[in-house]
Each structure stands twice: as C-alpha cells, then as structure tokens.
Amino acid sequence: MDSSEIPPSDRREEQPPASLPLPAAFLEFLGENGLDPALYSKADTIPRYIRLKPGTEPMVVTEIESELKCDLMKVSWLPDFYAIPPEIQIAGSMAYQQGKIYGIDAASGAAILALDVQPGDHVLDLCAAPGAKLCMLADMLGSTGSLTGVDVAKHRLAACRTMLQKYSLGDRSRLFVADGTSFSILPVNSNLGSMEAFVGIEDNGSIFSEWTSKRSWKDRQKSKKAKAAGSPHPPSTSEPELIYYGKDSGLVGLQKRYVLRPSTDAAACTSGYDKVLVDAECTHDGSIKHIQKFEFWGWKTLDRRVLNVERTGNLLQLQLGLLTNGFKLLKTGGSLVYSTCSLTVAQNENVVQQFLSKHPSAELLKIDPADSWPCRSGGIQKTLRTGAVHLQRQARLSGGDERLGLGHGHPVDLVGVDVLGAEAVGRGPVEAVEEPGERHEHQDHAQRRPGALALAGAEGQDLEVRQVADLHAPAVRREVPLGAELVDVVPDARVPAQRVGVDEDPRLRRDVVAHDGRRLE
Ligand SMILES: C[S@@+](CC[C@H](N)C(=O)[O-])C[C@H]1O[C@@H](n2cnc3c(N)ncnc32)[C@H](O)[C@@H]1O
C-alpha cells in the first residue's frame, strides 16, 4: 500500500490509539507471564526503524530526511539503521519505492548481526516471511554463499520474493514453501563429490533453467484440475515447493531431483548450512504495535489467535520443532540464532532449555558484539533481553554431531538480544498486513500443511501484500492487462505482475492485489 495515496482522513483512522483498553484475557495472559501491561501504552514513543541499503551514498540521508520531513537518527550499534518518529510513513517516499530503504526493527537487526554471516556462508532462514530479516541476510551475504528462505505460508513467502526482487537481493537466494519442522533440503554446492552425477545434460523439464514467474504447463494443469474439482487451491502435499531461485543460487543446470532430495542427518553434519535463523512463530506479545492492531481486528481475535490455550500449547511444540530441525540442518561447527517477538519465558528460555536438555552437543556461545548493544541479561546465562519495550532473543547454537556419536560438544550461544528503547516490531511501512481474508489463508494453510499453525499475526514488517478491497474500499476495479503468469487468476484489482509492490501468487484466492487500487485509475 502506498500510504501517500491514502487520503489523510483514512490515515488518521489507521493510527491506533496510544494507550489501549486491554481486554481481561490479555491482562491475564500478561499476569501469568509476569509481564507489565504498561508496556502497551508506550507505542507512541517507540521509534520506527529503517535500514538503508548498504552502499547508499551518505548524501542520500539528507535527501531522505527532506523527503520524509524528519531527522534520521543513526543507530550507532547497528550498521545502516536509522530511527525515525513512529508516525512517519515511508511507503510513499521515493527512497522506499526506489528500494533505497526498508522498514526493519532494531531488534531484528540485532538478531541478524548475532548470526555473524560471513562471505561464502550457506544461510537458512527457517521462518522467513514476510522477509525483512531475509533481506538483511541477503545483504550481509554479498556476492558469495547462498540464502535459503523457508516458510509454511505461501502467500507470505511470495511477499519475500517480491522484496528480494525489489531490493535486487535475490540472486543467491531460493525460497521454499515448506514446513520448517521437517524441511530437509541442503544447500547446493555443498556436496560436490556427488554433484557431477546430477548436472543435467538434456533439459526435459527435470533440469532447472533460469527462474521465471511464468507458471509451468504442469502447474497450470494442476490448478485447472483443482478448480474443476471445486477447490480454489491445488491439492496440497507436504513436499517442499520451490517458488523462487535467483540466477546465482547454483540451481540452474542442475537436476531437480538432486536439488530437491531430502537429506540424511549424516549428510547435514558435513554439508549442512553454516548459519540458521529460526525466527519462530510466536504470540507476538512483544510487538506492542502488533498488539495494538487487535484494537481494529477485534479483541476476540486476540483471544482466539494469541491466548487460546490449545494454540499456545501447540505453539510451544512448534517452536521446539523448528529449533530442533534448524539445528539438525546445521553443519558441524555451524551456528543458529533462535528468536521470537514474544516476551514470555515459555516461548524463549524454556524452549531453548528444553532443546538443550535433549541435545548435549549444543552449547551456548557468547555473542561478543552484544557487549556494546543496549541489552540486559535474560533468564539463562548468556541470554539478553531488552528493557521495557521489546524483546527479541537469539539462541546461537553450534552444529552438533551427536548423530554421529562423536559426543564432543561445540560452543553454542544463546543470546537474548534485547534492545533497550528499540521499537517493538511494529507496523511496517506498507501498512497493515493481516486482513480478514489473509487470516483465512493462514488458517486454511495451517490445515493443509502439517506442522503449520494458524498465525497469531505477521510481525507487521515490510509485507507488501494486502487486500485493498478490505482495507480501503471502495477500491477501483478497473482491469489492466495481466502478465502471462497470471492467466487463470481472478484478482480483486488487476495489475501486471512485474510491477513493484504486487504480490502475485497465482494459486491463492487472494490472487493479485495492487498496493492501492486507486493507482489503477
Ligand atoms: C515471526 S514470523 C517471521 C518473520 C520473518 N523472519 C521476518 O523477519 O520477516 C514467523 C513466520 O513463521 C511462519 N511459520 C509458522 N509455522 C511454520 C512452520 N511450521 N514452518 C515454517 N514456517 C512457519 C509463519 O508463516 C510466519 O511467517
């Protein structure tokens, strides 16, 4: 959504109130978890953060300041991060539209720094969508190594693809719709010994050619069949689905069966990922601005999606499952960051404790740069927490090789990075993400994908997908020509898929939605 195009009256309506009348059930949840409700009245003082694409000329800062009409305050401990006042909308700015800046909260930045990505690393982001951290990871990677993003929600992962493309960060990346608790595909080029056998000679559809957004004939047939059978979605499988790969991701020319084959535990030890980020699905209670959105969505939704006991129980299992599988995919000596945007001990320290009790080869490591971060200690030694406002914690764990029975531990690190005064993960520059229709998708997806839970909600980061009709009715329904890949799609507001700011996920009912239907006028 391009906020510059929303009439000022609408803009005001979208601003949540500074202090919220929190419902009893949420107050109870906070009480049970020892959290102070006063946290949620501070949203109007929490800055928003943006990150400048590395390499952006310093003089651009002045230009952005004059465009946004505010000062950009450099965050000394986070390279390329700037704080801006919370009420500033960036989505309408040229700097944003030209891909010079993106919205990402400071605590997310800390999680990525904690991962300490090095040139040549193979990096896995196991809960990647909507993709702010993925973009930063891609930036850190530079022109070597590889980045694999996984998320169980296809439409959210499609937003990651849009972001990677918009910021020209996708060349070394690949994106899989998959359950992160069982995903087992290793990085390419990590098993060179046997790779020759998998380099394709004839392209008969079993070899990766350059990625295109055009759907294959096979895919189109599948979705036609699904439609004919009365289902808006193609039948789901639990097989990972590759929805994007960049030209330098190493896939082009390889046989699909080589790239997509599941790995064994032993193979992961030697050929797994160097770095894994598990930014797990959580109750999002540490995201003050996210909680504020329930004022609009309805507090009953908060009950159902955040506080529901059954859901929370499942969530803890999911978090442990994601952490365990992420660890399994690390190569020996690799490291992992576990992070959530919940403030609860249950979803953070306890999950990590449980994990550690079952994985003796995993140890906590100290994250040295965190010494200069505005953090305080968390509940376990070497964990850090933020102050009153926001929590994000990272566990940094070594690759373990107990599966080989070698029995020696590697240094592991659990860091609760918490950023004093850093913003809660807040509304991204592109407005609200979770609209009623989207919630349906989450739930539907959860039913269709084993391991998936209905989401508590997006982090509100830079997700560029929205249902215009729901948010800003009346959206203009004038049609413009569709890109070839969108044939079969019946969107709310049609736009060419190539346009920046468009999510094209041909298999979902949400279809293709312009950021703002009025642009089509
Ligand atoms: C906190 S958000 C991740 C935010 C993201 N790292 C970012 O920086 O934009 C959690 C994500 O986990 C995903 N998720 C939930 N269950 C999952 C599962 N079983 N496997 C993989 N991803 C899952 C959700 O779809 C959601 O996008």
Q: Would you kindly provide a written description of the structure presented here, covering whatever features stand out?
A:
- Belongs to the class I-like SAM-binding methyltransferase superfamily. RsmB/NOP family.
- Keywords: Methyltransferase, RNA-binding, S-adenosyl-L-methionine, Transferase.
- GO terms for molecular function: RNA binding; RNA methyltransferase activity.
- This is SAM-dependent MTase RsmB/NOP-type domain-containing protein.
- β6, α7 and β7 form a beta-alpha-beta unit.
- Strands 8-7-6-5-9-10-13-14 form an eight-stranded mixed beta sheet. Strands 2-3-1-4 form a four-stranded antiparallel beta sheet. A two-stranded antiparallel sheet has the order 11-12.
- Helix content is 30%, strand content 13%.
- With 521 residues, the protein is of the alpha/beta class.
- The two termini are 15 Å apart.
- Bound molecules: S-adenosylmethionine (SAM).
What topology, given as strand order, has the largest sheet?
Answer: 8-7-6-5-9-10-13-14
Low confidence ranges: 1-18, 232-236, 386-521
Radius of gyration: 22 Å
Mean pLDDT: 69
